[in-house]
Amino acid sequence: MKLIRHSLAAVCLSLAAGSVLPALAADSVMVGGAAMYPSKTIVENAMNSQDHTTLVAAVKAAGLVDTLNSKGPFTVFAPTNAAFAALPAGTVDSLLKPENKATLSKILTYHVVAGNHTGHELMAAAKKGGGWTKLTSVEGEPLIIKEHGEMLTVTDAKGVSSAVTIADVKQSNGVIHVVDKVLMPK
């Protein structure tokens, strides 16, 4: 109840100042033009992001909506639409076909790690590990997390590195880190 009163007071102050953005910033992060609320699940928030429409379509086609709406917690490295568009021509269309559901599921679960791994935690583990640390994806293969100053990258099984462009988007069932490339298992 205290949080609701605090949020309501912030909205009222923001409206009086002519903007609601400061009130949103206290409770959410903006991704793809939409507020990402920590009270919503990974899928609920991703569905509102204009930058993740391809990811949402892929999650639906792979039958992973219920899994990513479950309790978790999960850490998701969420590729943007631009990341999917950078794949070879026809790849996304092919993956979304029902006959490729197993391959799509393998790729998507490679972007998911069990647990709630914040950017701060990943940065600290990488620094402690000499600049890198390893996480095991739900798919079963490792992801290499590297720190470069204040930036994190995720390197996939094929040696391609993806930058974390937005870290620590808190969800009710985990955390999302937005990445600029699609990660590929072996």
TrEMBL record:
Signal keyword on record: yes
Domain of life: Bacteria
Pfam families (alphabetical): Fasciclin (PF02469)
GO CC term (a single one): extracellular space
SMART domains attached to this UniProt entry: FAS1 (SM00554)
Residues making up the signal peptide according to the UniProt record: 1-25
The keyword Signal is assigned to this record: yes
Domain FAS1: 39-183
Entry keyword set: Signal
Listed name of the protein: Fasciclin domain-containing protein
Native species: Pseudomonas cavernae
